[in-house]
């Protein structure tokens, strides 16, 4: 028997195979989110170097997120045929290599094309990883394992932003982005080495004409459409805060350097901690109770950034980060538990709306920033989180599934 770690093939927390799985998926999350979000602190640099507006510079992040969102709807059915690990592995290697190439391209439009392709290839990890955990983890381990996956995402997002921001200030942004690509490549190799093969996955013969039906039935569920809406609102608002906070802090009266702004993104550590902690709290007290509390915390942090004092602004970003990652950890694991079949498709719909929120709302925030400054951004994002809080309170009264 393999490590005596599973009952009926399910992986239990605290076992050697659980630790290997958690490390592998944390490395995968690191790779994917580092290559996606390394450009975020560089948006003011792109606006200057390429002569584009803040909203146009945000396309370096919004475009790959939009392509990733659409591609998720194709990749998740493919994973039902080809297998979870194979799809995730191809995704990690391709997105790392495209990031290295993007660092070498001189023109803005060529750079955007490569960023868009990176979004396409990165789509192979997020929904498939959620489906892998839903299939392989014991019910008592799924909250923690999903939290650790989201924590790895946070580590990648933080490291990508931090490294690219600091290196842009002391060398140039191209060296920083190439470094991120190299680190992502190393993470892909670690994933290949550590992730156990699926033991409960059964390949399916899936006719493409049947694919819409594997998505559609999720929208007839009483809870899943509301969880999908949460993904769109929470991620869209969160990305707006991080997209435009750099523009605010570069200008007077703050006039911070690119290095300091890059260091501010280290508050993602708070997200790395809050994800598994919130996952454990959800397992103990119930997702219905924890989701609305985490959303309310995120809203409070957003409002704190209205202050003109730098310490309160940073504290607000920390609180908003804790709330966002906590809410996302709970909502994403809830999708995995609520979808009784076609889990990869349910996860991909959740993440499609998640990344569409990042793309559409993240760019829309640029309009508010251009017309009303930071107060406009906070008004916009506060409205998104207020709506998300109403939905979370509605979900708190959702009847559990009879299984």
UniProtKB/TrEMBL annotation:
MF term (GO), any: transmembrane transporter activity
One GO CC term, this protein: plasma membrane
Location of the Major facilitator superfamily (MFS) profile domain: 17-400
UniProt xrefs under Gene3D superfamilies: MFS general substrate transporter like domains (1.20.1250.20)
Cross-referenced SUPFAM superfamilies: MFS general substrate transporter
Subcellular location: Cell membrane
UniProt topology in membrane: Multi-pass membrane protein
Transmembrane residue ranges: 21-39, 59-75, 87-106, 112-134, 141-163, 175-195, 224-245, 257-278, 290-306, 312-336, 348-370, 376-395
Keywords: Cell membrane, Membrane, Transmembrane, Transmembrane helix, Transport
PANTHER family in UniProt: BLL2771 PROTEIN, INNER MEMBRANE TRANSPORT PROTEIN YNFM
Family that this chain belongs to: Belongs to the major facilitator superfamily.
Protein name: MFS transporter
């Amino acid at each position: 028997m393999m490590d005596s770690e599973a009952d009926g093939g399910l992986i239990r927390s605290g076992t050697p195979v659980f630790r290997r799985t958690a490390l592998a998926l944390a490395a995968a999350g690191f790779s994917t989110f580092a290559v996606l979000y390394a450009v975020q602190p560089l948006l003011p640099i792109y606006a200057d170097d390429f002569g584009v507006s803040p909203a146009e510079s945000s396309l370096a992040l919004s475009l790959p997120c939009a392509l990733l969102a659409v591609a998720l709807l194709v990749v998740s059915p493919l994973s039902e045929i080809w297998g979870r690990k194979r799809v995730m592995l191809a995704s990690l290697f391709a997105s790392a290599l495209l990031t290295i190439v993007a660092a070498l391209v001189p023109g803005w439009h060529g750079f955007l094309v490569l960023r868009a392709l990176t979004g396409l290839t990165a789509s192979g990890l997020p929904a498939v990883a959620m489906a892998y955990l839903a299939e392989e983890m014991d019910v008592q381990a799924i909250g923690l394992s999903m939290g650790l996956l989201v924590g790895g995402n946070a580590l990648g997002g933080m490291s990508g932003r931090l490294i690219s921001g600091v290196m842009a200030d002391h060398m140039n942004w191209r060296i920083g982005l190439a470094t991120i690509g190299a680190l992502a490549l190393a993470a892909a190799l670690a994933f290949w080495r550590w992730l156990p093969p699926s033991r409960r996955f059964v390949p399916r013969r899936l006719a493409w004409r049947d694919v819409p039906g594997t998505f559609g039935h999720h929208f007839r569920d009483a809870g899943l459409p509301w969880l999908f809406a949460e993904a769109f609102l929470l991620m869209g608002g969160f990305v707006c805060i991080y997209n435009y906070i750099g523009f605010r802090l570069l200008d007077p009266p703050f006039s911070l350097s690119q290095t300091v702004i890059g260091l501010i993104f280290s508050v993602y550590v708070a997200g790395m901690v809050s994800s598994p902690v919130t996952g454990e709290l959800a397992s103990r007290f119930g997702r219905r109770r924890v989701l609305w509390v985490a959303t309310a915390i995120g809203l409070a942090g957003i409002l704190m950034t209205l202050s003109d004092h730098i310490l309160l602004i940073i504290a607000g970003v920390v609180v908003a980060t804790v709330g966002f990652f906590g809410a996302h950890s709970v909502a994403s694991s809830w999708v995995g538990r609520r979808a009784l079949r076609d889990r990869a498709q349910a996860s991909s719909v959740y993440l499609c709306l998640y990344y569409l929120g990042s793309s559409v709302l993240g760019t829309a925030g640029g309009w508010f920033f251009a017309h009303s400054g930071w107060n406009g951004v906070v008004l916009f994002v506060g409205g998104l989180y207020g709506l998300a809080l109403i939905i979370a309170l509605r979900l708190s009264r959702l009847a559990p599934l009879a299984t």
